[in-house]
Amino acid sequence: MKLFVDDCRPAPEGWTLAVSITEALKILATQKVEYLSLDHDIEHWDLPEGALIANPKGTCIEDYSAIAWAISMMPEDRVPDIITVHSAWVDAHDKIRSILLHSQPTIVVKKVRYVVNAMGGPTLEDV
Fold first, then answer.
1. 34 touches 82 (CB < 8 A)
2. Which residues contact 10 (CB under 8 A, 6 or more apart)?
3. Strand, coil or helix: what is 82?
4. How distant is the alpha carbon of residue 93 from its chain centre?
5. How far apart are CA 118 and CA 124, in angstroms?
6. More confident residue, 44 or 2
7. Coil, strand or helix: which one is 48?
8. Distance between CA atoms of 46 and 51, rounded to whole angstroms?
9. pLDDT (tens digit per residue) in 102-116
């Protein structure tokens, strides 16, 4: 399975979308994910379920430490083979990579770019 974690963009074709860290954790706990792609700015705030708004005021209640912890607790054969960061924020890759490597020093985290292809569908490209 390919898991795309993003609360604003649609997942590329063939990917499963998780719109929150919590949703991603549920999938990681129950299914083998071969490819995990993360956006940095998951903006889920303390709002009623399903109420996603751009740049709300409040306190963010989710971060990538939970995913790093979950990956560190996985048996080696369940750790995603590929982990990428598709955030538009320049420093996001280094930040998420640091969090993940702290708990699982052997994983590889790559940077990719989210683009809309000529057919109008989203895709990920290596950077």
1. yes
2. 17, 122
3. strand
4. 11
5. 13
6. 2
7. coil
8. 9
9. 777 677 777 777 777
Strands 122-126 and 109-116 come out as: antiparallel
Q: Which domains does the chain have, with CATH numbers?
A: 2-126 (3.40.50)
State if pTM tops 0.70.
yes
The count of residues in the chain is 127
> What residue spans of 1-127 are helical by DSSP H?
21-30, 65-73, 92-103
DSSP 45: B
Other C-beta atoms closer than 10 Å to the C-beta of 89 total 12
The two tokens of residue 43 are: 């903006």
Residue 56 burial class via C-beta count within 10 angstroms: exposed 0-12, middle 13-18, buried 19 and up: middle
Name the residue type at position 94.
Answer: D
Reduced to 3 states, what is the DSSP secondary structure of residue 4? strand
**CA-based nearest residue to 47, from 32, 37, 33, 57:** 57
Residues 22-59 pLDDT 10s: 888 899 999 999 999 988 767 544 445 554 444 444 44
